[in-house]
What we know:
The complex is a heterodimer.
Chain A (H helix, E strand, L loop, with lengths): L2 H19 L4 H6 L1 H11 L14 E4 L5 H10 L40 H14 L6 E6 L6 H12 L5 E7 L2 E2 L2 E2 H4 L5 H7 L3 E6 L3 H13 L5 E6 L22 H14 L1
Parallel strand pairs in A: 1-2, 2-3, 3-7, 6-7
Antiparallel strand pairs in A: 4-5
Chain B lengths: L3 E3 H15 L3 E5 L3 H4 L2 H6 L4 E3 L4 H13 L3 E7 H7 L1 H9 L5 E6 L17 H6 L5 E3 L4 H13 L4 E4 L4 E3 L15 E4 L4 E5 L4 H13 L4 E5 L2 E3 L3 H11 L2 E8 L4 H11 L10 E6 L9 H7 L4 H12 L10
Parallel strand pairs in B: 2-3, 2-4, 4-5, 5-7, 6-7, 10-11, 10-13, 13-14
Antiparallel strand pairs in B: 1-8, 6-12, 9-11
Helix pairs in contact in B: 1-8, 4-6, 9-13
Amino acid sequence: METKVFAKEMRKLILEAIYNSKSGHPGGSLSCTDILAVLYNEEMRRDVNDPKNQDRDRFVLSKGHACPAMYSALALKGYFPVEDIKTFRKIDSYLEGHPDMKHIPGVDMTTGSLGQGVSAACGMAISAKKQNKDFRVYTILGDGEIEEGQCWEAFMFAAHYKLSNLCVFIDSNGLQIDGDVNEVMSSAPLADKMKAFGFNTLEIDGHDLDAIRGALKAAKECTDKPTAVIAKTVKGKGVSFMENQAGWHGVAPNKEQYEQAIQEVEANG
Amino acid sequence: MAEMKAQRDAYGEVLIELGKKYDNLFVLDADLTKSTKTADFKKAFPERHINCGIAEGNMMTVAAGIASCGNIAFASTFAMFAAGRAYEQIRNSIAYPHNNVKVVATHAGLTVGEDGATHQCLEDIALMRAVPGMVVLAPSDAVQTKEACRFAAEYDGPVYIRVGRLPIPVVYTEGEYKFELGKSERLADGKDVTLMFCGPFYQLAMDVKAILEKNGLTARIVDMPSIKPIDTVAIKDAITDTGLIVTIEDHNVFGGLGSAVSDALAELDVCRHNGKEIIKIGAQDKFGTSGTPAEILKAYGFDAVEIAKQIIATKCPEFAGEIQL
């Protein structure tokens, strides 16, 4: 499947998951969709038939609430049946409200409590370095999430130990639950901060597939530093009435909204 | 006088032994390598020792990430900054996903001494006991500490081990003693009261027993290194055989060994004798304070004479406060 189509299918599954569960986080799932699509459909060295292979590239969704995006990518790659997406967040379903590495095939780390995923990714990256393994570790943080101090502890750690096998995406959609990131707690100037913290820092359009591919290539070429990719994104990307609306952070669409959203995604895709 | 040895020294030694045995064992520390004694491991296996700097939350989650790649991770700092500061990282990144991380927390309790209340963790057993699936151990000497660490390395899943700062008597014999999860050790027997302790209180329990004997009472002494799971058989035997349990711990009486024993006691199907069943010696819902460890312990009620008086008063209603020493 072409990655552009893969991303479109992901968006439909994200909406389907959240619509059926009547709960979940559409805004931040749709903003990181294109990054996940490139990672899962093109970039990462992973085998669906051997999901626990110790040499696989790792992915940690530090902004764990965006798991409808990860679950959709995993389902499309065959880690579990696509139909199971409908059971998201339901009792008796393994598709827990936030990623659960023990019960969901293909999930490498349990996340959801903000700020911790990036530390876990550091742990994976340093164990690869120490044990001479060549796998790479990818993580996605929210631009609200980086208000957690632990992220900066992890950034210091990553640069100190020269974790060049770690690539940190910051899904910079500009909005968090209480509104504009710059009004709630600004992290500006973010690129300067990441550079000062010792990261190979890139800024891209997080919906431009070629730009994402280019950033991944540049990350691999940097051999002495971790890479931070600040990806400018649109919260709710692909659904007109969700785009750039903080109100769609953690709200499920009703039937009418769901149907309109699916139509728009189909039309845009 | 028994040989004295700090549990953290034993921890430093056993880590080297475990580092040789397991080539996938990593040790993490947060700028306290000389205090926690992980510096010994660093010397032997520099490639597998990771100093995380003064950032305990990050350390615990890094440990989880390392463990998720098929490794064993031992993460150490003071109890205050392990169970306390990094509680939520331990809960969500280590325990909930059942990652193979062993948190070995040193400098637990009042016996930290002069550093005072901010560094005297009196809540860590309570915090760790409440986390589903967490094994909680509070060994009572150097030999048992080593055995607890050997067990932890072998066990697949999260373990919390609490040790103290001070040299304490060596109770067990290396090579003879074998730690078993959920098992206590009966170190002396008696029929009127059972003294159940964890951590640095072997000598105190022995002193209480000696005083009681001069006053016509005999005491069973049980070491309780496994707080979770706890030895319910020993608790049942204690209440059945002696009718009174006294718990002694360097921890708040709320949520620690005393609470764990009370929890088990309340659920036991045994004949009750309508009397007081438990006395909890520990911090009585108070923060610690600065002072020498001996001064603090005395001020907080860890005093053999005072404990013996409480026991005699409970066992002998006619007791007027005078005891034979």
